[in-house]
């Protein structure tokens, strides 16, 4: 018997579209009557002061800078070399028990399930997620040990 592949779709996009169509009934999917054209009133543009334009420009620049730095740091953290990928491919046979909160346990279970639905090969286990987290922590410890020590001191 041939194996069926699950349908893939963008869950976030579907959720957003469903929320936007709330209260429209079938018209959300099939518009039976054309939408009436509504005359758009032209309003006079609001004059901005020089200071407001300068402040808006500063905010936009800060947001762009923050976004670029986040992308850069995320890319730095998530880059694994071939040796690290090979280490993650090694089968893990040693059992270890960790003390986690209910929220953390649920997160790991839910994340493993969601990723298993999205991945094209095999199943994502909770151990896979934890092993990747260990590797990321190891890389972050080499790069940013001082900040990690501050975080650890704050939680103790």
Explain what this protein looks like in three dimensions:
- There is one protein chain.
- The chain is extended and about 70 Å long.
- The protein has 156 residues and is mainly alpha-helical.
- The protein has helices at 11-20, 50-78, 82-89, 102-118, 126-143, 145-155.
- Helix 4 (102-118) crosses helix 5 (126-143).
- The protein is built from 6 helices and no strands.
- The protein starts with 10 loop residues before the first helix and ends with a helix.
- The longest helix is centred in the middle third of the chain and has 29 residues, at 50-78.
State the total count of DSSP E strands.
0
Question: Could you tell me the mean pLDDT?
Answer: 74
**Strand-residue proportion:** under 5%
Shape: extended
Helix content: 55-70%
Q: With helices defined by DSSP (H or I, 4 residues minimum), what is the helix count?
A: 6
Secondary-structure element order, N to C = HHHHHH
Tell me the structural class.
mainly alpha
Distance between the termini: 56 Å
Biggest pleated-sheet summary? none
What gyration radius follows from the Cα positions, in whole Å?
25 Å
Low-confidence stretches: none
How would you briefly describe this protein structure?
This protein is mainly α and 156 residues long.
Structural descriptors:
single chain, 156 residues, mainly alpha, 6 helices, 60% helix, extended
What's the structural blueprint in terms of helices and strands?
Blueprint: H1 11-20, H2 50-78, H3 82-89, H4 102-118, H5 126-143, H6 145-155
